[in-house]
Each structure stands twice: as structure tokens, then as C-alpha cells.
Amino acid sequence: MLFDLVYAVAEDHPDEIAVVHRDERITYRDLVERVERLAAGLADRGLKAGDPVALLLPNAPEFVVAFYAITGMGAAIVPLDPQLKHDELDFRLRQSRVRGIISDDRAVGVCERIVAGWEDPVEIITTSTAHGHGTTIASLIEGGESRRLPARSPDEVFVYQFSSGSTGRPKRVARTHGNVRAEARTYPTVLGTVVGDGVFCVTPLFHDYGMTCSLLASTPAGAKLVLLEDPNPFLLKRHRAIELIEQERPTIFPGVPFTFRLLAEAPRDADMSSLRWCFSAGTALPQGVFDAFVERFGVPVRQLYGSTETGTLAANLDADPISTFASVGRPIGDVEVKVVDDDGEPVATGTVGELVVASPALTSGYLDQPDLTAAAFHDGWYSTGDLGRLDEEGRVYITGRKKLLIPVGGYKVDPIEVEDVLNTHPAIAEAIVVGVPGAHAGEEIVKAAVVSTDTCDQRDVIRYAQERLANYKVPQIVEFRDEIPKSPTGKILRQYLL
Amino acid sequence: MSAAAAIHSFIVEELLPGRGIEEIDHDDDLLALGVIDSHGIVELVVFLEKRFGLPVADEDLTPENFASIASIERFVRSKSDAGASLGS
Questions:
Q1: Are the beta carbons of B61 and A235 separated by less than 8 Å?
Q2: Are A414 and A166 in contact (CB under 8 A)?
Q3: What number is the ipTM of this complex?
């Protein structure tokens, strides 16, 4: 199981630093003890192997300890964005049929309201007693007994995550201990990660990118995880980010184009010479950002490719990435990538088609969604919905996407999910959501085109969305139209809404 | 409207909706509460530039300047010393 890898590091290097956050430096010995104690505390509260347990915490040591405690005791972790609004949380908690929730003060109130009427009681654990909640992570760690966690079966569910999709609500994905362990071994191996390395984490750990490329890329391999406290909004935190990089000298830095752009534009210079690997994912890295970062700091930003369903698929590890910066690199480890046409047949090298992938880290499908699973998963291969090509040397280039996802600040917004919400507005007859170019290359803005049946203005629409959707999904532009452009067959012509 | 009242009004009307927070005090930590996120900071900076006619430079973008309504007001006042108008 995954935690065996952490145990191995802790036995050989108990005094190495595992996690850095503010003034706190947690050794591997301390990390293991806290995890074991919390796992025992969760068991004492009635949680057991197989129970889904939601985790709504910011990037902090509590997240790391709870992550390993939940999965180490065999429960299935459900990492969720604490920014989610009531309806979004309600959907995810119900879909996952959670038996426990570990939340910070900000989200615990809404979680309590959601599960209040459930037939099966849900154990709620929080980070402080500030709002009258009795059971905290600290109290469970203090009261729990430190005993070695047993090995888990590769087939046990490790994590439930929610994937953006092209059809309606997010889809729930299960990944097993076998899936996650495969990734936690492969990714650090291809990067050459060793004890003494450091991973600088600015991406949310509840997101699959942060989970796989920061958390799983560090502690199971003996690297220290350097957490930037409260990284959002990054615009206000880049000074602190630079300070941390200079102090802690991490060697690996996974980010998104937005973070690298803001750092390249920072008003102060910085020593980033410790960084051996900088990776950008989430959306295409604009050449301007690549050039600006390498010119400012002398470190190339490499592209990386993965998804919730698959984990990390490819990374640009080229010795000289200047000429190949536009590529997300070659498939890592046992990952296979092929390019197929609309009939599913492989295309000639260099020809653009849909990317389909196979990986030991691949989920088996979408839970409770047999039709969607059948459409995307075939004989161990997953159709990513991304368009791309391979070069003669096997590098992958992403050229577009079949799915209608909008890249916003490192997130992917599913327009259908936003449309579903807007279409419940009493004065909206029809709403279509598209991504329009933002102020910087590679970044988009969510725009809603709306046909209204009654009086409503942009402010009404935005406020309605704000109350129901995480802020990054809320349209920034609302355009009122007499009708939505459609083809003679009724297909929405989104290109005329851009 | 005073600068503090204008800033308070903007935050309550534009950034609070949907967050489950009814009211906000001048010293509340807007970053810890998640009131100012990646989108909120951009909206707030645009508001400050338009409402008070002051430029917000890269160097100004620090948690200290945007942690609370009180600190935003102090920031606006310090910039206004360089010539911007605070309104009345």
C-alpha cells in the first residue's frame, strides 16, 4: 500500500523533514506518529475500512496527516474544494455517501447542514473548537494510540474524485490503492527524486494535480513537501513564494501557467537555482510565459500532462527543453499514449487525432454512470477527449480538446455544469456558457450568453451563479441575446458566441 | 461616502454573495475567510483604481495591504498622499 513507502522512508531517515509549513517542520518520524494516532482516533469514532471520508482542508500539515490516516486505515478519501458552495458540496457528499467529514472552520457549517437529515449519521471532525465542534483533528491525534497501519489490498478504493466532463454534473472516479501506488512509484522515479529533494507546493492538494504531483511526488519518495500557506490569491503571495523558494531551496515545482507568469512578472529578483524541475499543467503553457520565466530565473518550465482519471501521463524531461517546450513530453513509466481518428483507428505519426491512453494508474470508469464509462473506456484504454499528435521520438503535443472545458486560473470549468445552474434561474429561458480569451495567453474568461424571459440584468445572473457555484466558475461576462445561434439540426453554434 | 464605507460596500455587494457570510467587520481577515480569492483581488484592484483614481503597482500587491477593510483603507490613504482623491 502507499503508506508502506512513507514507512520505509521514516525507518531509514526518521529525522528528515517531511513537511514544511509556516514555522512548522515535521520529520518523517513525527509524520508517521501523527498519522497512526489520527487513524486510531478515526477508528475510535466508528470509521472503518471502506467508509468514504470527505476532506475539506487547505494546504496545511493537517491535510497531509489526514490524507494518510484515512487511506492508511483503508477508508476512501474524498478530497473536496473548501470553496465549493452548498449545492456543489451536497451533490458530492451524497454521491460519495460519505460516513465522515474532516473540514476546517470555513466549510464545517455548510457540511453539517447538508448531512443533518441523513438517515446514517456522519462523523464530523474539524480543525478547531472555535465554533463549538467537539471533535478535532488535534484531539484525535492526542487521544489516539500509535500503532502500525496494516498493508492494504491493491483493489481497495483509495480515493474518490470528481472529474470535469462534457455532459452535465461532474463524474465520480474511484482510484484504488494499486492505481495510486503505481503513480507514487513511477513519477518520483522518472524525476530521479531522492531523500533531500524538496517539492514546492502552490497547487491545492484536494485537486488531483496537487495530490499526485506534490503530495505523492514528495513524501513517499523521501522528499520534503514545502507548503505555501494560503496560496490563494497567488497574486498576493508571490513575494512569500519567492521567499520560501530561497529559504527552503526546493528542487521540484509543479505549477500552472498563471503562477509562472506572476512569478516572472514579480517586482523583485529571486534565486531559483535550486529548482531542477518546474512543471506546468492544466492548460497550454504560452511561449511568452516560458520565455519570460527562463529569461528571469534561468530555469525552463516544462509541460506535464495528466487527468483525474489517469494520474500523470507524460512529462517533458528533455535535456534541452527550449526547442520542445510546446510538448508535454513522452509518456512516463508504463503509460501508453496513442492517437486515433474518429473511428478509433491509429493515425500516422504527426497526424492530429484524439489521445487515448493506458496506464497502471488508470481508473476503471465512472461510478454509477455505465453509459459514460462505456463511451470513454475501452479494453483498458481511456479516451481523453484531448486532441494531439506524436512526433517521431514519441513526444506528445496537445493541440486542442474535444470536450468543452474552459481553463480558468489552473482550474477547468465545465460549461455544462454552469449552464445547468443558470438554466434554473426563473428569468432565464436558455443559457450557453463559453470560454473567451482572457488578458493573457492560455487563460480564458467564463462568458454566459443568455436568453431571458423576464427582467434580469448581468448583476442578477452573476449573483445567482455566485450563490451556487465556486467563484472560479462564475461567469464574468453575461451577454443578453434574443436567441442562441443554432444549426438547422438544433446544434448550438458556440463559435458564434465567442 | 468615506473610503472605508465605499470599500466595505464594494466587498459586501460584490465579493460576499454566496459565501455564507452575512456581514464583515473592518478588521476581519479577508484572506483567511476566503473573501478575496484570485478573482476577487482582480475585481478589488480594478475597483480601487476606478473609485479612487489611484494606480496599484505590483509592489503594492501584498497580503499586508489587502488583509482587511482597515488595511485596504490604510493602503488607499497612503497612496492618496501621492495625489489621489479619496472622495468625501
A1: yes
A2: yes
A3: 0.72
